[in-house]
Amino acid sequence: MRNEIRRLRDEAGLSQAALAAVLGVSRQTVNSLETGRYDPSLPLAFAIARHFGTTIEEIFHVDD
Amino acid sequence: MWTTDRSRTPAVSGTRFLAALVAAAVAVAVAALVFDAVGHPDSARGAVVGGSAMIALLVALRWRAVRRADAAGPAARVGAGIGDERDRTIMTQALATTGYVSFLTLTGLCVALVCGAGALPSATIAMFFQIGVFVAAFAVHARRA
User: Fold this and answer.
1) Subunit contact B2:A43, Cβ cutoff 8 A
2) Which residues of chain A make contact with B10, given a CB cutoff of 8 A?
3) Do residues B48 and B32 touch, judged by C-beta distance below 8 A?
4) d(CA B75, CA A25)
5) Across the strands, what pairs with A60?
6) Which residues make Cβ contacts (< 8 Å) with residue B107, sequence separation at least 6?
7) Residue among A14, A8, A21 at smallest CA distance from A53
8) SS3 breakdown of chain A: % helix, strand, coil, rounded to 5?
């Protein structure tokens, strides 16, 4: 699954560690999310969307 | 709806970790007493030394994971009881792989026993093989996730 987390984080001027602290996960988890190696749980996906003030659909895209 | 473990404050997590350490120490003591009662003092000493080493390792993992959370890996965070959802997913996958392989290990162990292999060395080899499988599975799943 592709996502826009890296772009949104860059636009917000956040480091991976800062975003991880906000989301309550490790920096490695944020890195894995950004590289598409790990798909978040639904609650974490909601938390990410809420943090960036957007929707899950705007952030996560299913690979076709 | 919130399954990510944010409700676990460090203090609560610390209490659980302390409880786990006490439970582990009690288990080690019981194992040592049982070994001693059935006439295996060397095994009792081994249980105490091995169990103490594992408890010390968990304390070291906890200390490192709390002090330098950013540098700690999934294994350290899970061992310290402060893993996030990805860490727990890795742990679950590693345990699932280990459980799956255990069927094959058990089959191999049965074949070895039928062929006349010693029970104790066979069981020991199977146990260490399973530990190796778990470590390898954890590393592979951590790399993939």
Assistant:
1) yes
2) none
3) yes
4) 15
5) A3
6) none
7) A8
8) 60, 5, 35
Would you state the structure tokens that stand for residue B144, as one six-digit string?
A: 């993939």
Whole-number Å distance between alpha carbons of A17 and A31: 9
B54: how many CB neighbours lie within 10 A of its CB? 13
- Check residue A53 and give left, alpha or beta (phi > 0: left; psi -120 to 50: alpha): left
Question: Pseudo-torsion of CA B15, B17, B23, B28, nearest 10°?
Answer: -150
Put simply, the answer to whether A32 touches B85 (Cβ < 8 Å) is: no
Nearest to A43 among B4, B69, B72 (CB): B4
Reduce the DSSP state of residue A60 to 3 states and report it.
strand
In angstroms, the Cα distances linking B52 to B12, B27, B40, B110 are 24, 11, 18, 32
Token look-up 């798909």 returns: A39
**Both tokens of residue B52?**
């103490």
- Tokens 């890296």 belong to A6
In order along its 64 residues, chain A shows pLDDT tens digits of 899 999 999 999 999 999 999 999 999 999 999 999 999 999 999 999 999 999 999 999 987 6
Q: Which residues of B touch A27 (CB under 8 A)?
A: 70
Residue B100 in tokens: 């799956």
The ipTM value here is 0.88
